[in-house]
Amino acid sequence: MYTFEDRKGRSLTLRPEGTAAIVRSYLQNNMAMLAQPVQLYYIEPFFRYNQPQKGRYRQFWQVGVEVIGESDPALDAQIIQLALVILKDLGIDKLFTLQLNSIGTPESRKKYIASLQDYYFGKERHLCENCQVRLGSNPLRLLDCKEEDCVTLAKLAPSFSEYLDPESKEFHADLKEFLDELGIAYVENPKLVRGLDYYSKTVFEFWDNTSDSQNAIGGGGRYDGLVELLGGPSTPAIGFAMGVERLIANMKRAKVRVPHKDELHVFVAQLGKEAKKKCLPLIMQMRERGIKTVGALGKGSMGAQLKIADKFGAPWTIIMGLTEVREGVAIVRNMKLGTQEKVKFPKVMDKIIELIGEENLDTYHPGELLYG
Q: What distance in Å separates the CA atoms of residue 231 and residue 255, rounded to the nearest whole number?
């Protein structure tokens, strides 16, 4: 971690991850009084004093989701499904495989760690420098080291499943049943652990299908003891995080075309006060319907307005002047082909939707965040 003293000699540390801060906020803001579970998300920068390399940066961004206040394998399945939906929406879900494991309760983990340390006793010289330190501080991390000698030793190490308590085994079995019902494929990976020691039971990661890339794009798991560790009551929780830079890198690798937020569906050009009175409500109605619309509300000539439409790259332009107002129509112009047709004014929005396609409408509507 980045730890240093400020000008007053106070020791400061830049935050290395988001879960602990979310739990602190949960406690400080009395979120236990809200309907449980509390569902939270973040998109923020974090800092780790690692050697920069491919997929690893000293300052990086993560998107994370935390659900606090409920312990249910069905909830774990929903969290994993949400992570997969994000990858699918970004067009990169086929690049990754879900790795799944259970690391049990703290009590069963202590027994496993003791067995792990016994296994590595006398083999220290074959471990990398980092793992030699981890053997005493966090032996579970030896299982996810990528150094060749460490990988070889980890393959022969005792399996976590041999030390799982009955409760964790039942929880894990139920989780797999729910994943099967959701049609979510997974790989059981008994060597999978998480880098932080507050995790319990469910752990998961999304591993790159190719061996020449950064291994994981994100992951998470259940951390039922963290709220209590930070001074609160015993409270179950689960979450996951994904590295934004890694998401972007894989979208580039998959040649995913990112929609531009300023891409328009329609430009509205009008001349005269009466045409403007007709077009103002139309612009608002189309925006509310999910049609990305810009209207020229100045006093420019029709030619000048069409040049603006070209600069915006709008595929369609609605044209309305004094003649169109009098006839109760609007002209819908294809800006690429230069063709156009007259449409009865009440049918203009239906015509635009037909041309651009329902599936291409902006699905966000004002109030969605408040009213779901």
A: 46
